[in-house]
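Hi Y.,

Following your request, here is the sequence exactly as I used it, all 202 residues.
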Amino acid sequence: MRGFLVGLILGLLILPIGVAVYLRFGNVPVAVTDPAFPEERAIVHVPLEARIDKEIPHAVPLEASPANLLTGAEVYREQCAACHGLYGRNSSFAAHMYPRAPQLWAPHGHSGVVGVSDDPPGETYWKVKNGIRLSGMPAYAAVLNETQMWQVSLLLAHANEPMPAGVMTLLEQPLIPPVEPAASTHPEETHMPPSALAPPGP
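Below is the corresponding structure, written out as tokens. Let me know if you'd prefer a different format.
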């Protein structure tokens, strides 16, 4: 009996020590280009889906009116398109993220579902509001108000359907990267004090 207890204690100690040594000295996949952990997808998605199932709001407080879809498209362009792409235009760097950022205006699967249009709006709203850890998906609860989060969620829920013309205009236009201001060669356009621009004295 004593030998069994000693073996049990040693076994319980060896496991966390082994994990600690592997995390400290092993070749842990931490780069985007590294292969995934065994069962990593299941480890991440099972608790995520369980949490969403528990907290998903089933009542949608807005209707998918042209006005709400249009505002949702404006929010999407500003907050989401850089990672999740536009209609006919995939994000240039989404495939190099880990996990890859899904392209929400691209059809996928055998049924040709577009983006997350097969998910209920409440599920997309939960993800927009809370974000997803270790995925690059931020939480927008402190960035967007409730109406905006629902508007963009409704937009994505109806991505498989025809959209009002104004919405498609926003979704088809490419994003314009911000232009860096050119360095000024005129002292009066700089923020340096005049004394800093004066030539040194003799």
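Residues 184-198 have pLDDT under 50 and may be disordered.

Thanks again,
Q.
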